[in-house]
Amino acid sequence: MTDEEIMAEAIREAKKGFPLAFPNPLVGCVVVRNGKIIARGHHAFFGGPHAEVNAAKKCSYNLRNASVYVTMEPCSSRAKKTPPCTDLLLSLRPEKVIIGDLDPNPIHNGRGVEILRKSGIKVKIGVLKKECQNLNPAFYKNMKEKLPYIILKMAQSINGKIADNRGNSKWISSEKSREYSHKFLRAACGCIISGVETIIKDDPELTVRNVKIQSQPAVCVIDPNLRTPISARIFKAKRTVYLISLYNAKNKNYPENVSVIRMGKKEDGFQIIDILKTLYEKGIRSVLVEGGGKTHGQFIRSGLFDKIFVFISPMIIGQENAISSVSWTDRFSPKKGLGIAVKPEDIKSLGPDLLLIYGKK
Amino acid sequence: MTDEEIMAEAIREAKKGFPLAFPNPLVGCVVVRNGKIIARGHHAFFGGPHAEVNAAKKCSYNLRNASVYVTMEPCSSRAKKTPPCTDLLLSLRPEKVIIGDLDPNPIHNGRGVEILRKSGIKVKIGVLKKECQNLNPAFYKNMKEKLPYIILKMAQSINGKIADNRGNSKWISSEKSREYSHKFLRAACGCIISGVETIIKDDPELTVRNVKIQSQPAVCVIDPNLRTPISARIFKAKRTVYLISLYNAKNKNYPENVSVIRMGKKEDGFQIIDILKTLYEKGIRSVLVEGGGKTHGQFIRSGLFDKIFVFISPMIIGQENAISSVSWTDRFSPKKGLGIAVKPEDIKSLGPDLLLIYGKK
Predict the structure, then answer these.
(1) Entry pTM
(2) Residues of B labelled as active-site residues
């Protein structure tokens, strides 16, 4: 087996940590001796033992003459819930450690490798680097930009409407689409962002249903005038709800798990970047934007998105005043071209629906 | 080889007639002797020799001990440009004729088969029937409903906009999408239907470019008040242009190839069915609707479409007043559900664009 083939195994192993490892990164580890895989391990849940520990356990902590393949550089920090994996490796002394990519955290980047090399363990870096990075796009963005990873999600008709002219919108997308959305989008995000219009009109729960998770994602409502009703269903689950409001908006007798965040207002909305920075400071590492058209419009025209997930239901909603999946004021035009260009990345069939996935261009 | 395998060959052969055979149906023929294919033929161009004739030619008109596979029942009518294929078969006397499907024209349906059987030639019917029918959806609809086959085509942003708020729309779709559209949609239609708004705003040529065709498709503009300018580029090509107008609309000094058709006006538009019936009477067997949102809206809410081709360009056009690919008055709501449901049929990648194909539900 080549290094690439074994690393591909480690990547498969890493994916088993989805979604319970979040917001920690997905990491996989494979131990090879005499050309044979003798153990696999992955980071299985947030705060739990790392992939290397779980793999080492399975070979009774005996790594002599073995090679250790790990999708991300072993941790070397003592400021964590678990002891550093470099300590474990130094004591078990495998012959070689093969790493997919360095830890993107600038504080740790390359430090684990240095520790291993100094102790005489051979280290190879960059096997299936891109694929290993793709395991954790949010983690990479967090480390580089100190901002949450941003996914916009919209469920629309073929012609881009998310509701008819009277605001009716329930069940545009199929059951399979909703299942997908719960399992792969909501379960893996730290916070669901929505606009106050959606909260008032649809009164959604914004919870993860039918998926095993550590805890429900937080919710953040962009609500300048604190119009979110006290009875809103978002308050029912055990989790934090952030209400982004103006300084002078009148507070209500909200439940204990509500945190009202005050911000200034500029132009025709809050600055999205301010909201994202605030959420990041509060520990939110990835957000799922399930807004109406205006909320999505604010993110898109600000260039503040990493992925757009568009669920297209096989129907046409045609009223002139039916609500679009993205809209912004007529005063705003893109600098060049007709629209804001995005990068096509993937298509999936979900029952009768299509899911189109776009990235940033 | 099984009958199905040989009929599949005949279907492949039939497709070679695209698009020059239009508006005649695509028909393919394969001759087999001693288990071997000895000749193939297809209906190659409008008014030209039929598939059976072309196949027979290749075996020097000797069909003894041979089986003839043909995707559609051989013609038996003398009221045509070419002599009936049943005459040819009676004179060449193959052992057996295997037919994909009967001629859907009620006048001819089953008549060819009867003639062959009466003369002692064995006939088998219905091999890959569905697939043979799918070669000529327009022809089947024409024969059954006496109406043109209707394809709606829209090129839109991800969020369903065909132009920004100022009406800018040129080149939303990619070159590959435009090529596809010329080759597979325009080249195979008898008439392109558009709305007068599109003609005034975009002044399109509405011609087939870079594809070998018999003649340019006709154009039909839904133009209640005859606002189409005399200088419009649609008038340049050699072909008929129909202008659908109100009885009292003032005529202009239009070129000779223009035919102004007067109709009454009901509710908020002409009745689409009246336009389609009129075009059918004039010999139009398939139409491609390249309208703006309102024109598409009229067809869709009337249920008058067979396929919808949606080209999705990887961009977001977000202005509040950007123009939607489908729209109708707020007074109209579908009888049940949120929108008008359609049937997902196919997806194609065309460069950066996606083409979603929907049928009628």
Answers:
(1) 0.91
(2) 52
